[in-house]
Amino acid sequence: MLREIDKNLWVAEQPLKYFGLSVGTRMTVIRLTNGELVVISPIQIDEATIQQLNQIGDVTHIIAPNLYHYLFTSNFKTYYPKATLWAAPGLKSKIPELPIDQVIKENKNSFLNEIQYLFFDGFRTFGLSGPDLLNECVFFHIQSRTLVLTDTAYHFDESFPLITQLAARVIGGYKTLSPSLLEKFSTREKDKVKQSVTKILAWDFERVIVAHGSIIENNGKQRFREGYEWFLDLSLNTTV
């Protein structure tokens, strides 16, 4: 079910386990001024969600924002075959059977004229086979001052199962907006990450939506900066 969190901004969540931990997952829906809906990181769709989406706008853009968040895009596309499926660079070669229509190109996609976005360069995630490129595109919804992240930061709290809380306390992401130690040890190109973080901190955001964890409604920019100061082992105060 969709949950409205601001004007022209909705989210929907579903359960998800990763490495045996209940981390949940979340998709974000943004309505543009022309009524088109941009769906970022789709989850498993159901009839109730379809009805809600059709009531609020026209699903025109479906986005697989990185090389890991694509599991439900094909199913979503079957319900909205006329929508354009946009994918992070490299996803087509990784999963050839995905019905990808367009590859996201930085500063070249006019459908995002109400949404700023950039690629989070240099960041690596820790997958089933070890450190792996993420190629994540992150988004800033200007109207609601909302930053939308997928796997570049987590924010777990007491609303999650105890075992997930304990794991997040150990490896990172418990009541902080940050990646985990797994990403910290996997990521070597810290200079590229710093450049991406600096660009993100130039955006005027207050809220942060993450795919895994609880949404941060207030002081999002400060929380993001603090999380990446830990990740990069340096101060980012001068970038704000």
TrEMBL record:
Coiled coil residues, start to end: none
Pfam family, one: DUF4336
InterPro entries (UniProt xref): DUF4336, RibonucZ/Hydroxyglut_hydro
Highest taxon of the lineage: Bacteria
Name of the protein: DUF4336 domain-containing protein
Naturally occurring in which organism (per UniProt): Komarekiella delphini-convector SJRDD-AB1
